[in-house]
Structure formats: structure tokens, C-alpha cells
Amino acid sequence: MSGRVLLVMPTSTYRAPAFLRACERLGLEVALATDDPAGPPLGPPAIPWDLLSEGRRPLPPSLRDVVAVVGVDEASVLPAARIAARLGLPGNPMEAALATRDKSRLRRALDGTGLPQPRWAEWPADGPAPDLGFPCVVKPTSGSASFGVIRADNREELLLAGTRVRRLLGGRAALLVESYVPGPEIAVEALVQDGDLLPLAIFDKPEPLEGPCFAESIYQLPSGLDSADQEAVAEVLAAAASAINLRRGPVHAEFRLGSGAPTLVDLASRSIGGHCSAVLRFRSGASLEEVILRQAVGMPLPDLQLEAEPAGVLMLTPPRAGRLVSIEGREAVLRIPGVEGVDLTATPGSLVAPAPDGDRYLGFVFARAGSPAAVRDALAAARDRLVVTVED
Predict the structure, then answer these.
(1) Which residues on adjacent β-strands are paired with residue 6?
(2) In which band, very low, low, confident or very high, does the pLDDT at 38 lie, cut at 50, 70 and 90?
(3) How far is CA 392 from CA 30, 321, 327, 356, 362, in A?
(4) If you count DSSP H runs as helices and E runs as strands, how many of each does the chain have, helices first?
(5) Which residues, in sequence order, are CB contacts of 102 under 8 Å at separation 6+?
(6) Strand, helix or coil for residue 80
């Protein structure tokens, strides 16, 4: 089956170009649902997604021939699930979608399953800070890109972290406190097909993420985990996806590996963020977005085996908060052996901030080389040669 696909995307998303290119390559007609139809053009004419999220409003006649609904990023997960349900199209149940957008719901859903996850407690806006021991991690109940995620090593730091995160969220807000899980962190990309998990890739994060903030920097693959550890990660992820009743579509998960069994830190029903999907190359020549769209509209899936060549992506974070003046050194970076692309996504004049205060990157650098070490070296050299100027 093929046909017209409804892409649900905010105007601020990184993910629009990759999904629109994939639709073009697959010959799919596109409709858009977006948070601001009057905002920056994304491609085809757009309809507001809140029009479709309220059941009492009639559906636009233009959506009668839509065969699939795809949310392209974190902010799109709930609107896409609502719209699919209203159109009577396959998608994840609302409770499952909610569990991947609300970290407290996710933790609660996984309690009692025996699956490894951090100890956790909710911190109500009007209640005392929970006592989980130290170190612990304070975070919002929703969000991505390490926004508002802060480690605390004692009670004073915990209280300061709570105040800071609530200020970022605009005032009084319930927070989540989790026990800190030591050890390396990995990211996993997968697809759920009729409730079954199809692992696609495991990304290593070679630079330590120990806090107090957790701005991500380098993702690389193939993973250095041995086959037994990779199977253990896939088993935990499959069981977690089943526990919250995810039925179809992309999954992006984060694990810590320092406590014996792989510990599930986060689970999202969407694909990897930013421009990071560009580092994935399947032997079939399909992009990750094409794989997602093929599944959504009922086209046969291609060969999901990744190319073997080591590859990686650098997420360029702001050096400090302020107004971006310039990013210089792109041409020098492109001359580094192994670097194959630089996407600078932040525009001069925009306000920027590193995590935990911001959730946007300045850009992305991609590298491929003969070994994982050569990939890391190329990306580290690229970071050193990009000169970022931020003013107050």
C-alpha cells in the first residue's frame, strides 16, 4: 500500500527536511499538520494540528485520502497519536504515547515489571524534595536533549537544582527525581512492528556524561558492545515497549550500562532527534526516515542491516548562554580527514544556551573513517576548529 501521508511537525523541528526528502524519494503525497500554519514554510500547505486534536471539530475533507500519520519528533508524538485515532488509522494507543512523553508515567508503567530502571520519585510543585539518596538526577517530566536535567550530589544541590529546573519551566511544576546510574551511556534506535521490536542501531556515547549537566556531544557506531550485551539491551527495550503497549513506529531509547543489566533511562516513541539520523546508512540505501515511512504506509521494509564503516556525529552545543554572533571554521573542518559534512543549524542573532538551560544545538558534524578511534578524533578536531562567538 502507498498513498498520502500526514506528517505532524512543529515549525521549529529539525526533522522536516529529512522526512520531506524521504516522501519525495518514495513517491508519497504529503499533507502537513503543524503547530503554526502561519509560521516558516515547511513545504506543502499545512493545517493546524489542534484542529484535529479536539474530537468535536470536523475533520478537513482534504484528509480523507490519508493512509498514515507520522509524528516526526518529540513534540509531535501526542498530536500524531490523536490524529491517527480520529482518522481510524494505525498508530500507538494514547496511553502508550502518553507514557513516552511523561517520564513519571513511564516509570510508573515499568514499576513491577522487573525491568531495570533507576529508583525514582515524583517531586510535587508544593511538596518536599524526595529522599532517594545521592547522587541523584532532577529532571522535568517531559522533554529531550537533556533540557533541565541536573545531577545533585547532596541535599543543597538537590534544592538548588529543583529551583533552577522550575525556573526553566516557567514556575511551579512537578519534577522527577531519579537515582544516578553510573557508567557508559548508549542510545538505541528501533522500530516496533505489530508489537515486535526490530533493533536498527546502537550508538555509543564515547565521552563521559557524568553531570552536573548532561549535554550530549558525540554519537558513534557501530557499537563496541559485544553481541551478548547488545542482545540484553534489545531484550530490555522490547520488554519495556511491550509493557507500555507500543504497537508500531520508531523508538528511541537511552540506557546506562554501569549496574550489571542495562538500565533504561528514557524511552521515546519517535526517531532520533536533530540531524543525527543522517549518520545511519542502511545497505539498502534507504534512510531512516524512508524506513519509518515505508512501515507507516504499508510498503515492504528494505534490508535493515547497517553499513559496517565506523561513523559518528558531533552535536555542537553553545559554549554559554547569550546571543549567537557567528560560527567560524566550517571550511577548515571540512578539510579534516574523515569529516564528510557540516550542518550549521543555528542562525546569527538567535538566543542560545547549553543544557540544561537550552534544548537546541548549533549544528552537526558527520564523520566516517576506518576505525571508531579515527571517527572520534575527527569529530573532536572539528569541535576544536569551530569558533563560536556568543555575546550577552
Answers:
(1) 31, 69
(2) confident
(3) 41, 8, 16, 18, 17
(4) 10, 19
(5) 141, 142
(6) helix
* Mean pLDDT computed over 53-65: 74
Q: How many residues does the chain have?
A: 392
Residue 105 phi/psi, 5° resolution? Answer: -60, -40
- Structural domains present in the chain: 4-100 (3.40.50.20), 119-179 (3.30.1490.20), 309-392 (3.90.1170.50)
Average pLDDT of the residues of the chain: 94
Query: β-pairing, 185-193 with 248-256?
Result: antiparallel
Residue carrying the nine cell digits 544541590: 157
If DSSP codes are grouped into helix, strand and coil, which group holds residue 205?
coil
Grid cell listed for 118: 533507576
DSSP symbol at 321: S
Residue 130's pLDDT is what?
97
Q: What SS3 class is residue 141?
A: coil
- 68-126 pLDDT, tens digit per residue, is 999 999 999 999 999 999 899 999 999 999 999 999 999 999 999 999 999 999 999 99
- Residue among 362, 363, 355, 365 at smallest CA distance from 144: 355
pLDDT in tens, 164-190: 999 999 988 999 999 999 999 999 999
CA distance 204 to 313: 11
Residue 320 has pLDDT above 80, yes or no: yes
**Omega before residue 135 within 30° of 0, cis:** yes
Q: Which three cell numbers stand for residue 23?
A: 516522501
Q: Is the peptide bond before 222 cis (omega within 30 degrees of 0)?
A: yes
